[in-house]
Amino acid sequence: MCGIIGYVGGKPAVEVALEGLRRLEYRGYDSAGIAVVDPDGSLRTRRRAGKLANLEKVLAETDGWAGTTGMGHTRWATHGGPTDANAHPHVDCTGTVAVIHNGIIENFAALRAELERAGHQLASETDTEVVAHLIEDALSAAEPTVTIADALRVVCGRLEGAFTLVVTHSGSPDTVVAARRNSPLVVGLGDGETFLASDVSAFIAHTRAALEIGQNQIVEATRAGVTLTDFAGTPVEGRPFHVDWDVSAAEKGGFPYFMLKEISEQPTALADTLRGRLSDDGGIVLDEERLSEQDFRDVDKVFIVACGTAYHAGLIAKYAVEHWTRLPCEVEMASEFRYRDPVLDRSTLVIAISQSGETLDTLMAIKHAREQKARVLAICNTNGSTIPRESDAVLYTRCGPEVGVAATKTFLGQVAACLLVGLFLAQVRGVLYGDEVGANVAMLQQMPGLVEQTLATIEPVRALARELADAKAVLFLGRHVGYPVALEGALKLKELAYMHAEGFPAGELKHGPIALIEPGLPVVVIVPSPRGRSVLHGKIVSNIQEVRARGARTIVIAEEGDTDVEPYASHIIRVPRTPTLLAPLVTTLPLQVLACEIALARGLDVDQPRNLAKSVTVE
Ligand code: F6R
Asked: Taking the CB of residue 434, how many other CB atoms lie within 10 A of it?
């Protein structure tokens, strides 16, 4: 949600910033802008509504900018529409201070009124612009020796809400300053150059040495590195880390869309999530464990909090966690969690699932949980992000960068990571014996191969998708772990193809939604294995017959050898045989491909669907 890059070094800042914005555009694409401080101290800015290409066009017509200090922004609009005037950077009345921002300044209306009373001219409808004018005041009120970092510190003391702010000032041509509270910011440390960015992909082409920044901190970046202080001015330390993937992982690699590449990467992504998770004594290994085994033994209830696709991964996990650990497990949308005052104490384990590690709803949910003394374990794909840092233990999904806005490979990583946590809990609590845990892990380790097998036979799904491109709506039905898969299939179709889609528990249909069925309506049914939970299987075969009898076009996802569904299926999509709890790792794949191909057939951009952003850092 808004992408930010700041740069100070020896290269033309405009080029570094544009390259960074290309990699960050997935975070928001309503407008883009750039600011560069020239060596003579003049501040230049350009900004344009719409995708980055519009800004690039304007910059191509601009004379070469010599400055090697600057910043860039790609916006997901919150306050004020996606216009040129609302695009970042925003400048103060003197035109010497430029500010870019990710987050929401909640008290901006009061600050704006105060600034206007004092004679400031505000040119946009954004919350961000007040910061430029407040810095102008802080600089003019203070001693001439006061730095831009000092001024930013004073201003941060007046701001409510979440923000990452990056500021350039014509009076400080060799410095870029930034502040962060509850919004992402990482530092890239190059050779004679320093980067500030929403995530490491913005500077990965230049350096893999990064620094994690804590909450409520100010960063002063020069070519030599960074100085970090808290909002009171006390020096603090960042946490260095090495980015373990390179620039090729953040590129399309011959695919027309990142989403297609990321779908194809799922066997590797899943294998990477699972890699090295079993210790020599057969135990499961987490990444950063600041909780003791006793803490896990003391758990008497599990909450999973997450949003969107990550929430669906949590819904799947519930079945496994309860089955393996015999602990009650509730799954909550993170945005609702803290407002309903859930019952939490130090024996509650809260599992927060987040690809980006920055989703503000999830971050606020875990902060609330920790205030109530609950333990928090994060499942996250992004090293250096906020949610792992604010948690007691972490398991990284290690799926590599996911650039397509719709989550695909990280969903599989999240499901697998949740299953590992379930097994870990069962193991430390003594509910499963070591050999039972080992047998489950062995089955999990076969899944990357089965994912590969499923993707190798996915071509007919693409053809079917093209046939469905004009459908008015699509329904998805599932039972047991197939129900969250149905929700995920519907979400993918909504966000990518802008089609009406709903996921239902198949048994619930007859209690109302069956009225939606009309001749020709595509209904996708995720069928559980006939082996193992045969009761479920029999029930869903009846549900397929019910919708088919009312004229629906039934698209059935069933495992190899399941012949019972054949008489009632308009189309069958086969998936390999898997244990029931692991089936979502394969049944989700055709749904991702279906949504992606329908969207492409409708001429849509699957990497950047309308109104969305990859990392949602506002509540
Ligand atoms: C859908 C999608 C979103 C995210 C959700 C949570 O394809 O990607 O629903 O799953 O915004 O994001 P993270 O996992 O970053 O917390």
From this structure: 11
3-state secondary structure of 125: coil
Instruction: Assess contact for 135 and 155: CB atoms under 8 A.
Output: yes
How many residues can be counted in the chain? 619
Listed in order, the ranges of the chain carrying CATH 3.60.20.10 are: 3-250
Looking at this protein, which amino acid is placed at residue 547?
V
The per-residue pLDDT for range 80-97, each reduced to its tens digit, is 889 999 999 999 999 999
Provide the strand spans (E) within 172-274. 176-181, 186-189, 194-197, 209-212, 217-222, 225-230, 239-242
The arrangement of secondary structure in 456-601, i.e. its CATH architecture, is 3-Layer(aba) Sandwich (3.40)
Question: Percentage of the chain surpassing pLDDT 90?
Answer: 81
Strands across the sheet with 161-169, in order?
A: 90-91, 97-105, 161-169, 176-181, 217-222, 225-230
Contacts of 109 (CB under 8 A, 6+ apart): none
User: When comparing pLDDT for 427 and 129, which is higher?
Assistant: 129
Interval between CA 483 and ligand 1 midpoint (Å): 18
Contacts for 176 with CB less than 8 Å, ≥ 6 apart: 6, 7, 8, 69, 70, 71, 166, 167, 168, 194, 196, 221
3-250: CATH homologous superfamily? Aminohydrolase, N-terminal nucleophile (Ntn) domain (3.60.20.10)
pLDDT, mean over the chain:
93
Question: Over the stretch 522-553, which tens digit does the pLDDT of each residue have?
Answer: 999 999 999 877 778 999 999 999 999 999 99
Residue nearest ligand 1's atom 5 by CA: 308
Smallest CA-to-CA distance from 3 within 46, 45, 32 is with 32
Ligand 1 closest atom vs CA 356: 15
Instruction: Name the active-site residue from 261, 409, 492, 614.
Output: 614
B/e letters for 494-517, b = 16+ CB within 10 Å, e = fewer, are: bbbbebebbbbbbeebeeeebebb
CA–CA gap between residue 76 and residue 612 (Å, rounded): 8
Q: What span, in angstroms and rounded, lies between the C-alpha atoms of 186 and 167? A: 15
Q: Which atom of ligand 1 is nearest to the CA of 414?
A: 14
Ligand 1 pocket residue status of 397, Cβ below 6 Å: no
Q: What pLDDT score was predicted for residue 282?
A: 65
Q: How far apart are CA 24 and CA 122, in angstroms?
A: 28
- CATH, range 258-445: 3.40.50.10490
Q: Where in the chain is the domain with CATH 3.40.50.10490?
A: 258-445, 456-601
Residue with tokens 């009171």: 232
Tell me how crowded residue 271 is: count the other CB atoms within 10 A of its CB: 17
Question: Which of 262, 222, 614 shows the shortest CA–CA distance to 413?
Answer: 262
Q: What is the DSSP string of 56-90?
A: HHHHHTSPPP--SEEEEEEE--SSS-S-TTTSSPE
Instruction: Go through 87-97 and write b for each residue having 16 or more CB atoms within 10 A of its CB, e for each that does not.
Output: bbbbbbbeebb
Distance between CA atoms of residues 551 and 548, nearest Å = 5
Beta-bridge partner residues of 197: 5, 186
Q: In angstroms, rounded to a whole number, what is the distance separating the alpha carbons of residues 482 and 503?
A: 10
Is 510 tagged catalytic? Answer: no
Among the listed residues 2, 156, 399, 596, the single catalytic one is 2
Count of CA atoms in the C-beta half-sphere (13 A) of 225? 8
Contacts of 554 (CB under 8 A, 6+ apart): 523, 525, 544, 547, 548, 568, 569, 570, 571
Contact 584, 415 (CB under 8 A): yes
